[in-house]
Amino acid sequence: MSEVHEVTLIVANIERSREFYENILGFKRVEKPGSRVELGAGGCSIVLEEDFEEDIFAQYNLRKPKGKRGDGLVLELNVDNVEEIYENAAKGGVEILTKPKVMWGRNHFLLEDPDGYVLGIGKSV
């Protein structure tokens, strides 16, 4: 494998998710036509895609997500300023799972996005 091209997150409300990723985490949108929101993430993109109809999920042999969508997944993000994002998240009423702490050579904390996807926010120390 040479690289991860993109990570697609199926979300319940694309505008709510876009605001979270842009305003709380500081992602920048990659302008492309279509209904999805593509956010630049270094050499990879994070794509937000609103729920499809059941028949579209079935075409890809997938089930429509239910409940917390991030169960079993932690998406780790490298950032420039862990404390700034932690403060933005706290002020924004985001579900913060752990406080920042140094572990495994990283200053790191966990939070949940609006759909329950777990994000690790960290920086090497």
Attribute tags:
single chain; 125 residues; alpha/beta; 2,3-Dihydroxybiphenyl 1,2-Dioxygenase, domain 1; four-stranded mixed β-sheet; 3 helices; 8 strands; 22% helix; 34% strand
Descriptive report:
With 125 residues, the chain is an alpha/beta fold. It has one domain: Roll (2,3-Dihydroxybiphenyl 1,2-Dioxygenase, domain 1). The protein has helices at residues 14-24, 54-59, 82-91; strands spanning 6-11, 29-30, 37-41, 44-50, 74-78, 101-103, 106-112, 118-124. The strands form two sheets. The protein has a four-stranded mixed sheet, covered by helices on one side. The protein has a four-stranded mixed sheet with strand order 5-8-7-6, covered by helices on one side. The longest helix is centred in the N-terminal third of the chain and has 11 residues, at 14-24. The model has no long low-confidence stretch (mean pLDDT 90).
| CATH overall fold name | 2,3-Dihydroxybiphenyl 1,2-Dioxygenase, domain 1
Shape: globular
Number of helices: 3
Q: Name the CATH homologous superfamily.
A: 2,3-Dihydroxybiphenyl 1,2-Dioxygenase, domain 1
Largest sheet: 4 strands, mixed
Main-sheet strand order equals 1-4-3-2
Overall domain count:
1
Mean pLDDT: 90
Report the radius of gyration as a whole number of Å.
Answer: 15 Å
Q: Under the CATH scheme, which class?
A: Alpha Beta
Number of strands: 8
Alpha-carbon distance between the termini?
A: 27 Å
